[in-house]
């Protein structure tokens, strides 16, 4: 039976072959033990390319979607990144590997139990460049703004205005938008603060709940 490390290596090889993910994203994902972010008994399925339940009606995103979003963000070492929808903490860990010790990831999670579990896992693994915040992610997190990059791991009705405001000029956001038909958008803010958006493709995420999101779970 394959051990977790070998399963992780094979998963990354498949993502390289099927998606052509960048070296920096592949290397980051190879370092993060996804099985530690998934509650039993689903940890045995951690290296399948599929979303998995993490409790409270939430899921950990499929590895291919984590890889795609990281590549679309074009993350760089030393950047400050806001994650809306911290969930298990896995995606934040992958981003933290890419931005490095000089960078920082602020992950907002609205469900306290999930936030606490993510915090414990990240601390256990030594990710001191990730900060978990409990709150309404649709409002962003003003105390750490502005951000070089922002990504959202739940589907919104539109781009929340606070997230646009907290994105640096020259920054980029990746966000799924839609209720029943969802599309992943790449949102860029130019140096003069003008916003442009383009569609990457169809996706499927849990709904983004909050003041600037959906008012109740779908």
Model description:
The chain is α/β, with parallel strands linked by helices. The chain has one domain (4-203): Vaccinia Virus protein VP39 (Rossmann fold, 3-Layer(aba) Sandwich). The protein is 30% helix and 26% strand. It contains six helices and nine strands. The strands form two sheets. A seven-stranded mixed beta sheet has the order 5-4-3-6-7-8-9. The chain has a two-stranded antiparallel sheet with strand order 1-2. Helix 5 (112-124) links the parallel strand 4 and strand 5. Helix 2 packs across helix 4 (90-99). The longest helix has 16 residues, at 4-19. The radius of gyration is 16 Å and the shape is globular.
């Amino acid at each position: 039976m394959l051990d977790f490390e070998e399963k992780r290596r094979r998963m990354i090889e498949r993502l390289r072959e099927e998606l052509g993910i960048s070296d920096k994203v592949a290397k980051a994902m190879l370092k993060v033990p996804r099985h530690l972010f998934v509650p039993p008994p689903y940890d045995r399925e951690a290296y399948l390319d599929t979303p998995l339940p993490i409790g409270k009606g939430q899921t950990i995103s499929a590895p291919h979607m984590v890889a795609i979003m990281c590549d679309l963000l074009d993350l760089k070492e030393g950047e400050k990144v806001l994650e809306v929808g911290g969930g298990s903490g896995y995606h934040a860990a992958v981003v933290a590997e890419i931005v490095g010790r000089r960078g920082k990831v602020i992950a907002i999670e609205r469900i306290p139990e999930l936030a606490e579990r993510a915090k414990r896992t990240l601390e256990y693994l030594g990710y001191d460049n990730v900060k978990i915040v409990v709150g309404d992610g649709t409002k962003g997190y003003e105390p750490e703004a502005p951000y070089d990059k922002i990504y959202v791991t739940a589907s919104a009705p539109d781009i929340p205005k606070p997230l646009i405001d907290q994105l640096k000029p020259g920054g980029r956001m990746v966000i799924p938008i839609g209720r029943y038909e969802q599309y992943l958008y790449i949102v860029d803010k130019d140096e003069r603060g003008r916003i442009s958006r383009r569609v990457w493709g169809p996706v499927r995420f849990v709904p983004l709940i909050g003041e600037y999101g959906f008012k109740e779970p779908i």
